[in-house]
Design goal:
five-stranded antiparallel beta sheet, elongated, 34% strand, 13 strands
């Protein structure tokens, strides 16, 4: 049997306004997550049966916005879930990858300048730099990916697929880009991602802004103040591959 696949994209943008320490409060900034579904039609392929990937029940572009005010170090933000369904005629395996992380400065505050944040370039004292742009927020994020089994829109203990304590620190502590993130899971059986005809699954992402004073702490000389008013964005790619 020939294999076929359908691919769609979920683009996520986080724009963060930071509250640092007890006396510095930055207001008027928020968190923005943008979901974008792009449909690639493989109608010229020839195979027995078909797979038809939909995001939130749609083949066309869909967008959703989630906002949070005054996100500060230590805060956790649930970006939300996307429903991935197989509307084809054969069983297929879901694959999820993250690509193209970017972080931008959006100007430098006095606190960023005092921390030594250079103009026009990312301050990155660690050995790994996977993101583009001149901002430092991506390096200070933690990510949890989960399957929303009970469809309540919240991460439960038994729904956690994977936790990445740092997204961009060292070879051991980083988010693997352009790699299937559903192949190695903490609590969810691998067969969960095999979708039969008409079956759907809800995938969610939770982001945490790591606090310098937390157990995980800061990365070398990189501090929370370096990321003040920075944004971060990335694209999530979903594939359904015919079994």
């Amino acid at each position: 049997m020939n294999k076929s696949n359908k691919r769609k994209y979920l683009s996520i943008l986080l724009a963060v306004g930071v509250v640092i320490a007890l006396t510095v409060v930055i207001t008027g900034f928020g968190t923005l997550a943008q979901f974008t579904d792009t449909h690639n039609d493989n109608s010229d392929a020839s195979y027995a049966g078909s797979v038809d990937l939909k995001l939130n029940g749609e083949d066309k572009d869909v967008k959703a916005f989630i906002r949070g005010e005054n996100l500060k170090p230590g805060d956790t933000h649930n970006i939300g879930t996307v429903t991935v369904s197989n509307d084809g005629s054969v069983e297929a395996t879901l694959i999820m990858k993250i690509i193209n992380p970017m972080s931008y400065e959006n100007g430098r505050t006095s606190a960023e300048k005092a921390a030594g944040d250079p103009a026009g370039q990312e301050y990155d004292p660690t050995s790994i730099d996977q993101n583009g742009g001149d901002g430092e927020l991506w390096d200070q994020l933690q990510m949890e990916i989960y399957v929303d089994l009970n469809k309540d829109g919240q991460l439960q203990y038994n729904e956690r697929i994977k936790t990445y304590q740092y997204l961009d620190m060292t070879d051991s502590y980083k988010l693997p880009l352009n790699t299937n993130l559903l192949s190695s899971t903490n609590h969810v059986p691998a067969e969960t991602y095999d979708l039969e005809e008409g079956e759907e699954i809800d995938i969610g992402i939770v982001i945490k802004f790591i606090d310098d004073s937390s157990f995980w702490g800061s990365q070398s000389d990189l501090k929370n103040n370096h990321a003040m008013t920075d944004d971060a964005k990335f694209t999530t790619v979903f594939d359904l591959v015919q079994k």
